Amino acid sequence: MACMKLGSKSELFLLDGRTWLCSTGLASDVIIEVGETSFHLHKFPLLSKSKVLEELTGECRSEDGKKSVLRLDDVPGGAKTFLLVAKFCYGVKIEISAMNVVSLRCAAEYLHMTEEYGEGNLIAQTENFLNEIFGNWRDSLKALETCEEVLPQAEELHIVSRCINSVAMKACADPSLFSWPVSGSSDLKNPEGTIFWNGIRTSSKPQPVGEDWWYEDVSFLRLTLYRRLILVLGASGMKTEKVVGALMYYARRHLPLLGRQSGAKNGNHNAVDADQRKLLEELAELLPDRKGATPSRFLLRLLRTAIMLQASSSCQESLEKRIGAQLDQAALEDIMIPNMGYSVETLYDIDCVQRILDHFLLLDRDNPTSNFIVDEGQMMGDSHSPTPMTMVANLIDNYLAEVAPDNNLKLSKFQSLAASLPDYARQLDDGIYRAIDIYLKAHPWLTDSEREQLCRLMNCQKLSLEASTHAAQNERLPLRVIVQVLFFEQLRLRTSIAGWFFVSDDLQNSQNPSGNLAITRNDAHTGGTTLGRIVAVDEMKDRVSDLEKECLNMKEEIEKIMETKGSWNLLLRRLGFSRSKAKLKASKSKESPTSSTPLLHGKQNYSAELGDEHQKNI
Description:
The protein has helices at about 45, 50-60, 80-90, 100-110, 120-135, 135-145, 150-155, 160-170, 215-220, 225-235, 240-255, 270-285, 295-310, 315-325, 330-335, 350-365, 375-380, 390-405, 410-420, 430-440, 450-455, 465-470, 480-510, 520-525, 530-565, 570-575, 580-590, 595-615, and strands at about 5, 15, 20, 30-35, 35-40, 70, 95, 185-190, 195, 200. By secondary structure, the chain is α+β, with helices and mostly antiparallel strands. A hairpin with a 5-residue loop joins strand 8 (about 185-190) and strand 9 (about 195). The N and C termini lie far apart (about 85 Å).
């Protein structure tokens, strides 16, 4: 830390209790009181340096040999700073550093210690030293911290703004241009390779610093000065990510509740909570409003802490809007916000997540590029990159599955949150089916109408094969839903088989009547052969065989259900499941492996018959 030494005389001041005595051999003729501290001094050294002290000592006349008494309660820095001023007036050795230069500069201005009262007076000395320390990072920051002690006077003299500008300029500078920890210092290297850093011989260079090197240093500032520094940094063109990083570091340092996962608090600390609440609201206001600038995890932690500290409604609403704008970047564990207070019903704050989702959907509707319909291929799980809407849908479905076991979660809230997402948001409905199943298991008292109402949240046509198989055997689902699942799964399976046979017929028709393979004009043009087509036909036949096995396995599962639920026999018989496995195997043995037309015709008739029955019963 830089320092400046003034004066040449040895120490003359002695402390006696709360009284400072000057041992010059002459009796003091003036007493100056600063707060509870008294200074027994002499008039001449004081009035020769200060206009204010000259005027006060001239107005105050001693009577009957009594000493003149002056009160200077308003002197910046108090008794500690005035002691340095008195020593300066007497020519006693003092040391000016970044720790006391601001208060000394303000006290010198207050006492009007200008060059008119002596060359090299205190105002000039402190001003020169301030200009010197502004070239050093640590000294500039330390001087800024001490401005809190004399803030009104430091503001009038523009010391605060000068310190802030000095710190901001160094924080915005490229860290590779200077060596840590002293800004502006240069590394000197002698011909032998020994490195001198700040005049000290070292064995190696100081380690390079990253862009976040200043986060910790500025985190010691109080909120008033820290806020002003952040605003200056933003106006100076600093990257938004760096400003956000500094704010996150400051919040973690000064908000202990930010790192807690639980919402419980020990004890009653109203005063502490008030300070924390004010700090959180200020930091939330300083965060940039640009989407994606602040990580969603940090915003959600901040929102959780704001709820715990009962921050203002405007602060909580602002955080919810910010989170909603980038909800697709949130993680499940972060949106599990616990309910606070004693009158709440559910374990987690469902209403808060609902409001966040509403903000996301509102912005999505306002964005014309996001209003698209997902095609059937994407819904069936093709390899398409996920969109923000599909990511949010997956997040909400997982959230519903986590909160579903709560016995106090009302059906209306569950339905409202699940139904908020548009139909095209979910590529597959496996997630919402899982959440519904968990909710039904945790709420066995639901009526049949409520169960059917709940199951309307999912689309049976968008269930995967695994989910459909599970749903077909799920006794918690209403009978109508199980029938729908079976119908759509059979319909999809038979449609796939029919499609494969159509392709197979087209490839077989490409052969010549003599059975020999012919090269088409297109094949000749591309230089290809029909050998690949033969392989493709064989692969299709294998795929058809696999599909038939899957169909047979499904029929066996249905027969097991028929055995456990006899009342279904009539319904399943009407849906075409009364044919036994023996008949199915017999019909398969009669069919030629290469003849696909009769089987296809049978499947088409069955599909049409099944569709008619579905229109009557579903």
